[in-house]
Amino acid sequence: MRTFLLTALLSLFLTPLMAQNQPVIPLYSGSVPNAKATKGQETNVTRPDGSTRVSQVVQPTLTVYKAAKPNGSAVIVCPGGAYAMLAMDHEGHDVARRFNEMGITAFVLKYRLPNDQTQLDKSITPLLDAQQAIRLVRQRAAEFGITPTRVGLMGFSAGGHLASTAGTHFAKPVGTTKDQTSVRPDFLMLIYPVISLSDSLMHKGSRDNLIGNNPSAEQTKLYSNELQVTAQSPPTFLVHAQDDKVVKVQNSLVFYEACLHHNVPVEMHLYPLGGHGFGMNNKTTKDNWTDRLQNWLDAGGWLK
C-alpha cells in the first residue's frame, strides 16, 4: 500500500515536470494565420489532482516525445475539452509516453480553441492548426527520425472531433497557404469522440464553441464528420463507453458505419461502462484499450 501511494505521489509531482522537459516547437515560424491582434494571454490551471487545463491558446505548439528506439511512425495527439480548454495531461502527455513505449514518436498538439475575439473565422482555427501540425511533422521527418507516410492523428472527445475533421477534410485544406505537403493523416484514432454536430447526436458545448449557437444547416453538415467520410479516409480505430452521458456512443457508431459504407478499414472497441473522459484508464474494466490499440497498430504495419 505504501509503495502504491508513493508511486501515485511521484506521478502527481513528476508528470508536469516531465512534460516541461520535452522539446516544444511553435506550429508556425512566422505570424499565426487567421488571428486578430490581441492582448489576450494563455491560461493554465492546475487542478487538485495535479493535471493541467489550458485555455485561450494564442500560440499553438507541438510538444515532442521522441521514442528511445523509434520505429518510423509518428502520432499527433489532440487533447479534448469541448473546444473550450485542453486536458493536456491524461489526454495528451500521458498518452504520448504510452506511444513511446511502442516505439512511436508522439507530438502533443496545443491547438487554438475557437474564439471570435482572437480569430477571423473561429470555425476553421482548430483544423488549421491540426493540418499545420501534420505538415510540420512531415516536413521535419528526418529530424524526428520518422517516415513521412507514417503519421497518425489521435483525438479525445472534442479533440476526437478535430482529428476526425482532419481525417475527412484533407482534400481541400483550410487557410491560404500554398504549401503542397499532404495534410491527410495516414491513420486515425478516435477516443470517445465528438463526431456529429446534428441536433440528435451533438455535444452542445463543442458545437456552440466551434460554429456558434445558431449554426447554418450547411455548417452543421460540413462538421458532422460521419457525413464526410470517403473511400480515401484513413484507417480508423475507435473507443467509446456505452454509458457516456456527455458524448453519446452513437457518435462512434455512426462513424464506424460510415467507414464500413466506404470500405475504410475500421476497428471499434465499446465498453458497457466507463463514462466520459477516462483517458487511457477505464477503471470499470481490467481490459486496457491501449493494448488493443497496440495490436491494431501492429496489424496495420505501423509498429514495424
CATH topology category name: Rossmann fold
What is the CATH domain class? Alpha Beta
Overall pLDDT, averaged? 93
What level of helicity do the residues show? 25-40%
Instruction: Tell me the series of helices and strands, N- to C-terminal.
Output: HEEEEEEHEHHEHEHHEHEH
The value of Rg in angstroms is 18 Å
CATH architecture: 3-Layer(aba) Sandwich
Q: Order the strands across the largest sheet as they lie in space.
A: 1-4-7-5-8-9-10-11
Distance between the termini: 39 Å
Overall SS class: alpha/beta
List the domain count as a whole number: 1
**Can you count the helices?**
9
Q: Biggest sheet, in brief?
A: 8 strands, mixed
CATH superfamily: Alpha/Beta hydrolase fold, catalytic domain
DSSP strand content = 15-25%
Number of strands: 11
Secondary structure: elements and pairs:
Layout: H1 2-20, E1 24-26, E2 43-46, E3 52-55, E4 61-65, E5 74-78, E6 86-87, H2 89-101, E7 105-110, H3 125-139, H4 141-144, E8 151-156, H5 158-166, E9 187-191, H6 204-211, H7 217-222, E10 236-241, H8 250-261, E11 266-271, H9 289-299
Parallel strand pairs: 5-7, 5-8, 8-9, 9-10, 10-11
Antiparallel strand pairs: 1-4, 2-3, 3-6, 4-7
Helix pairs in contact: 3-5
Structural write-up:
The protein has 304 residues and is α/β, with parallel strands linked by helices. The protein has 9 helices and 11 strands. It has one domain: Rossmann fold (3-Layer(aba) Sandwich), CATH 3.40.50.1820. The longest helix is centred in the first third of the chain and has 19 residues, at 2-20. It is globular, with a radius of gyration of 18 Å. The protein starts with a helix and ends in a 5-residue tail after the last helix. This is Alpha/beta hydrolase. Keywords: Hydrolase, Signal. GO terms for molecular function: hydrolase activity.
